[in-house]
Amino acid sequence: MITLAIDTSARLCAACVYDAANSAVLGRAVEDIGRGHAERLFPVIGAALHEAGVSYRDLRRLGVSVGPGSFTGVRVGVSAMRGLALALSCPIVGITAFEALILDVPKGRPVLIIQDARRGEVFVQLFDDEGRAANAPAALSFEAAAALAQSAGAGLYGSGAPLVADTANGADLEILGDVAAADIASYARCAASKPPAGEAPKPLYLRAADAKPQAGFALPRKVPAP
Amino acid sequence: MDTATCILGIETSCDETAAAVVRRHGDGSGEILSDIVFSQLDEHAAYGGVVPEIAARAHVERLDGLVEKALGDAGVELGDLDAIAATAGPGLIGGLIVGLMTAKALAAAGAKPLYAINHLEGHALTARLTDGLEFPYLLLLVSGGHTQMILVRGVGDYQRWGTTIDDALGEAFDKTAKLLGLPYPGGPEVERAAARGDATRFDLPTPLRGEKRLDFSFSGLKTAVRQAAQEIAPLSDKDIADICASFQGAITATLRERVGRSLDRFAGIYGGERADPPLVVAGGVAANSAIRACLKDLCGERGFRFVAPPLQLCTDNGAMIAWAGAERMARGIGGDRLDVAPRSRWPLDENAVARVGHGKRGAKA
Questions:
Q1: Domains of chain B by residue range
Q2: Residue A59: how many other CB atoms lie within 10 Å
Q3: Could you tell me which of A38, A14, A22, A167 has the C-alpha nearest to residue A100?
Q4: With an 8 Å Cβ cutoff, are A217 and B63 in contact?
Q5: Residue A80 touches partner B, C-beta closer than 8 Å
Q6: A108 alpha-carbon distance from chain centroid
Q7: Residues in chain A within 8 Å Cβ distance of B50
Q8: Which CATH number is A2-98+181-193's, of 3.30.420.40, 2.40.50.140, 1.10.10.60, 3.90.460.10?
Q9: Domain B134-311: CATH class, spelled out
Q10: Is the ipTM of this complex over 0.85?
Q11: Could you give the CA distance from residue B23 to residue A60 in angstroms, rounded to a whole number?
Q12: Domain ranges of chain A
């Protein structure tokens, strides 16, 4: 089963073509661009397909990073891959940044995957010593994330790990790594093994849209006579 | 003679998620095979306006389903299409990205040409799809985001004669509605209230009256409405109706004067060439019947033909984007590369001098 997985949720614009039958990466292309994923994604996919020597028609499974990460970056990837899934009638799976990152960490101890979410928060998910999810992804303060890692005896992994280790109660926590994005091959492996859900993947924002209902703009109205 | 083409069009530049399939026949006529618009009105109502992040979130979850339905309704498969067209700007970048990336995916997987379409070009060419208009003609685009007078000389050949130097006309309607506590979207509410009001009660300004240039301005009028309303607040239903009627009256007076100048200029240039030069109106504000009546009347006076495409093709839709792609293709204009970028700002007339704001993303209006 030839799988194409992409990640546009953070700095990287990455694509990987993976053959599940032989557990082999057939092609990959990764650009560290920071922004401009909408422009670069299809050239990057093209490069990965070219290296693998396959065409779009050969794809049997699609995987896309649903974040959390840059809202815009995630939407670039999700809309592109949902479009490909429609065009190719191909099953598609969404993979969270947590699911991919945990594959890059050796098993044997609980791990708190931590992504820098800016605005004084981190996006986290806890995994047990077998690499299984132990809670739902969430946005937490640095202190709350440190407390969660303490109580689980978890090591810290991800771009937000240093932020959490720097808090007052985080000093004893071990940083296992502080990478910003998972290896694109991890996304591809995850995509090949994860059964497609009933509905198409949606971005995982973990944060509401920044908008407040407007009030107090309208002029006062006369109260109708009783 | 060129051959028939079948094009998918995708539109996501604001708060409508839209997809359509259009066929262009060899004789240049067009046929809409399917046209689906999903309006996000409910999502934005609580905020009194379109929230870009909310719009982007809604587009990404709906667009692929809409495209599938548009193809199904048209009875065509992706393989039957000759090209994929999508709005690449101007508009809200989050939504543009969703539409353009979906289009890129369909184009890449199906090995089809991709047309990254300027939203304004979609509006500009619609009258050729609906009414088979010949070039040249004048287009008045009046929506929540744009207020422009454009000379349409050919496919890809546009001259912007006038634009708003501040608020768009639809924005003026929405802000007036918001001030008066009318529900969102405000345009139809203001029109409804105006129908029972006294348009002579408040003396409101008609901005730029008498000025030779062909631009528009509505922020002064908006301020005048606010001041007039504040003076008499708290407002009764009658007050609100009278304010709306006076506001709408000032708008029609302004359009009559401003648009009239463009008609005169057009007649001066092309007067000898066509007996009934056309004025095409597009954009959501074209739904306002008082404005329609005033423009129709103005056209009658000046010997112009008033062309208003059906309402669902005046507001944002995928058919106009598909049609713009078809028109480009028919003229031998090649598709865009798969690394084409969405553009939040993208003047239709790249030579036009910026009226307000000009940054690295280009002219604002």
A1: 5-127+316-330, 134-311
A2: 21
A3: A14
A4: no
A5: yes
A6: 23
A7: none
A8: 3.30.420.40
A9: alpha beta
A10: yes
A11: 32
A12: 2-98+181-193, 105-177
CB contact residues (below 8 A), chain A span 18-37, against chain B: 36
| CA–CA dist A223, B3 (Å, integer) | 66
**With an 8 Å Cβ cutoff, is B78 touching chain A?**
yes
Chain B hits for A43, CB-CB cut-off 8 Å, are: 338-339
Chain B interface includes A39 (CB < 8 A): yes
Place of tokens 């299409």: B81
* Strand ranges in A120-226 using DSSP code E only, listed in sequence order: 121-127, 138-141, 155-157, 175-177
Query: One digit per residue, pLDDT tens: chain B, 365 residues?
Result: 468 999 999 999 999 999 999 999 999 999 999 999 999 988 898 888 899 999 999 999 999 999 999 999 999 999 999 999 999 999 999 999 999 999 999 999 999 999 999 999 999 999 999 999 999 999 999 998 899 999 999 999 999 999 999 999 999 999 999 999 998 889 999 999 999 999 999 999 999 999 999 999 999 999 999 999 999 999 999 999 999 999 999 999 999 999 999 999 999 999 877 788 999 999 989 999 999 999 999 999 999 999 999 999 999 999 999 999 999 999 999 999 999 999 999 999 887 777 665 555 555 55
Chain A: give the shortest CA distance to residue B173, in Å. Answer: 14
Q: Is the peptide bond before A68 cis (omega within 30 degrees of 0)?
A: yes
Strands A61-67 and A24-32: unpaired
Task: Provide the b/e sequence for B329-347 (b: ≥16 CB within 10 Å).
Answer: bbeeeebbebebbbbbbbb
Q: Is A98 exposed, middle or buried (0-12, 13-18, 19+ CB in 10 A)?
A: buried
CATH code of A105-177, in short, is 3.30.420
Q: Would B5-127+316-330 and B134-311 be classified into the same CATH topology?
A: yes
Torsion angle of alpha carbons B334, B11, B72, B133, nearest 10°? -70
Q: Are B103 and B114 in contact (CB under 8 A)?
A: yes
CATH class of the structural domain B5-127+316-330: alpha beta
Token pair listed for B149: 């007078």
Taking the Cβ of residue B66 and every Cβ of chain A, the question of whether any pair is shorter than 8 Å is answered with: no
